[in-house]
Amino acid sequence: SAVISQKPSRDICQRGTSLTIQCQVDSQVTMMFWYRQQPGQSLTLIATANQGSEATYESGFVIDKFPISRPNLTFSTLTVSNMSPEDSSIYLCSVGGTLYEQYFGPGTRLTVT
Amino acid sequence: AQKITQTQPGMFVQEKEAVTLDCTYDTSDPSYGLFWYKQPSSGEMIFLIYQGSYDQQNATEGRYSLNFQKARKSANLVISASQLGDSAMYFCAMSSNTGGFKTIFGAGTRLFVKA
User: Are B24 and B73 in contact (CB under 8 A)?
Assistant: First the structure.
């Protein structure tokens, strides 16, 4: 199994600012994913972070709002740009690549005021 | 399109009793994996159990078992001997080859264990 860490674990930010969330894995993984969980809701996939190429975004999410970097096989960042209160969520990084492997980081709890 | 359905927004169970959380899924992919996760108030996603579409036997992990009925496309989670610490949100999820190994989640079921 993979061990995943995320930084920061939580943050309170002002609207209009940006926050970058880091995801570190203890082993090389092919696929990394970023999810958003709004209050009281289920998890929604934002994008797949591809190493060496641009991220693949799901419908409703755009690169300008959620730029993603994947510089190597153990690290990725997600930036939440120009934040509004609607961006208050838990953001989770996960790694996978097979049908039976899907591990999650501890999450970043973001509050936008 | 792939879909996961959890129809129980909330469930109550008496401590030490068993409880079943329902999950149905829809996919045209013959090869897929089904997961259950527990999410306590801290927000972390805790993996509980996995079932592959080609697995002949139902998966079990300690007090957790997955009642897999492929023809009915259901993957219910059974928790035996409930404990107060089982109170949490539970998500059913699915991943498949054609889905690019992305995992989709159901709406979740909040379980309350009563003393």
Answer: yes
H, E, C per residue of chain B: CCEEECCCCEEEEECCCCEEECCEEECCCCCEEEEEEEECCCCCCEEEEEEECCCCCCCEECCEEEEEECCCCEEEEEECCCCHHHCEEEEEEEEECCCCCCEEECCCEEEEEEC
Summarize pLDDT for B35-62 with one digit per residue, the tens.
Answer: 999 999 988 899 999 999 999 999 999 9
Q: How many CB atoms lie within 10 A of CB A29?
A: 19
Residues of chain A contacting residue B102, judged by C-beta atoms under 8 Å apart: 33, 45, 48
Q: Is the pLDDT of residue B72 over 70?
A: yes
The mean-pLDDT minimum among A1-5, A43-47, A49-53 falls in: A49-53
- DSSP state for residue A26 in the 8-state scheme: S
Query: Which of A99, A103, A104, A110 is most worth mutating to test chain B (most B CB atoms within 10 A of its CB)?
Result: A99
pLDDT, mean over chain B: 94
Chain B CA closest to residue A30: B101
Closest residue in B to A31 (Cα–Cα): B101
Cβ separation B50–A42 shorter than 8 A? no
pLDDT in tens, B15-29: 999 999 999 999 988
